[in-house]
Amino acid sequence: MPETIALSLDSIYQLAYQAMRDNGADHDNADALANTIFTAERDGSVSHGLFRMPAYIKSLKSGKVKGNASPTVSTPTASIVKCHGDNGFAPIVQRMAIPHLIKAAKDQGVAVLAMTHTHHMAALWPEVEALADENLAGLACVSYMPMVAPSGAGKAFFGTNPIAFAWPRPGKHPMVFDMATASMAMGEVQVAKREGHSVPEGTGLDADGNPTTDPAAIADGGVLLPFGGHKGSAIAMMVELLAGGLIGEAFSYEARERDNGDGGPPQGGQFILALNPEKLAGAGWADHSDGFFERLTGMGDVRLPGGRRFINRQDTGPRHINKALIDTISADITDPSAILK
Ligand code: NDP
Fold first, then answer.
1. pLDDT by residue (tens digit) across 273-290?
2. What is the rounded distance in angstroms from the CA atom of residue 338 to the CA atom of residue 309?
3. pLDDT at residue 154, rounded to an integer
4. What CATH code would you report for 79-182+226-302?
5. What is the pLDDT of residue 209?
6. Which of 3.40.1280.10, 1.10.1530.10, 1.20.120.450, 1.10.10.10 is the CATH number of 1-68+306-341?
7. 41, 129, 188, 254: which is the annotated catalytic residue?
8. Which residue among the candidates 48, 84, 117, 119 is catalytic per the annotation?
């Protein structure tokens, strides 16, 4: 097993924050991104926590992403919120725009947030969980760069195109699923490569188009497959259309064409839909859907998506972080010893 270092959650936040600050980000941008890293590590979303910091830093250094982004929000109609991300990382854009989305959905019953000119490389559950915390259902999706071969093809065309959905449960944790439409997120494939694990059959093809269980063969020149054959392929296509065509942002292949290849997140958009059950179903919606969840979870070993994270969240102790990763991040921080003491 690779060597790890125990880091408190506060140190994880500080490491991410300082890496951002020492590479040109202002306080607000650094704080928003570091909070995303902290929540990912806290909840056990390790493929989208500190593991992503080196890529974020590369994009600050190359100038592709602005560390002092100042997103602007507009509301062209009562149920449409647009946010121009000023080429910042997604967390600062979400921090600015989601309160407007919540207000619009509470007033109108349904509202859409179209985020453009932003760079997303995180898990999606924080944005839909923020909606569920306000008793709204939420659906979010984002495309990426071509990494997934559509059903019937041997070359990449779709991004890993995650989709997340949250359902509010007043007084309880919401139900939240958040999943790549690829058979496996590329971040997980990269973690498997780093840790020396194989991946399940059906995860991807190697550079010659042959099925493989070697994560390195997929990550280095190969291609991922969609989950569920043609059905997952259709959902990946829907994500491209919602996060690209609908909101006037890049499809995955366009994001690749305009990317500078620095290894950080490409410029693209994010689609977030908020739905108000109080306005649609009326009073009693929460008890009604809780009855549904009780029946569902009463069926054998069924657990609700999101449950693993909520259990992890209760643990306020240190997290065991790959030492080589900490060394890589520390190399871009002026005085890491102040954080890693
Ligand atoms: P997983 O396959 O690990 O999990 C997908 C969902 O299924 C989660 O909500 C998980 O909940 C739930 N789940 C897992 N096992 C069970 C079970 N036995 N019963 C019920 N529910 C279960 O996720 P992926 O690997 O597909 O994606 C990982 C992350 O990568 C996501 O957060 C995604 O947003 C992110 N990503 C981001 C991209 C980007 O460009 N920004 C691109 C691609 C992916 P739980 O968490 O509780 O286990």
1. 999 999 999 999 999 999
2. 29
3. 83
4. 3.30.1370.60
5. 85
6. 1.10.1530.10
7. 188
8. 48
Alpha helices in the chain (DSSP H): 9-21, 27-43, 53-62, 90-108, 125-132, 186-195, 215-219, 229-240, 252-258, 277-280, 285-297, 307-313, 323-330
pTM score, whole prediction? 0.95
Low-confidence ranges of the chain (pLDDT < 50): none
What per-residue confidence (pLDDT) applies to 5? 95
pLDDT at residue 210 in the model: 87
Q: Which residues line ligand 1 (CB under 6 A)?
A: 45, 47-48, 120-125, 142, 144, 160, 162, 164, 177-180, 184-185, 187-188, 303, 305-309
Ligand 1 atom nearest to CA at 144: 40
**Residue 278: helix, strand or coil by DSSP?**
helix
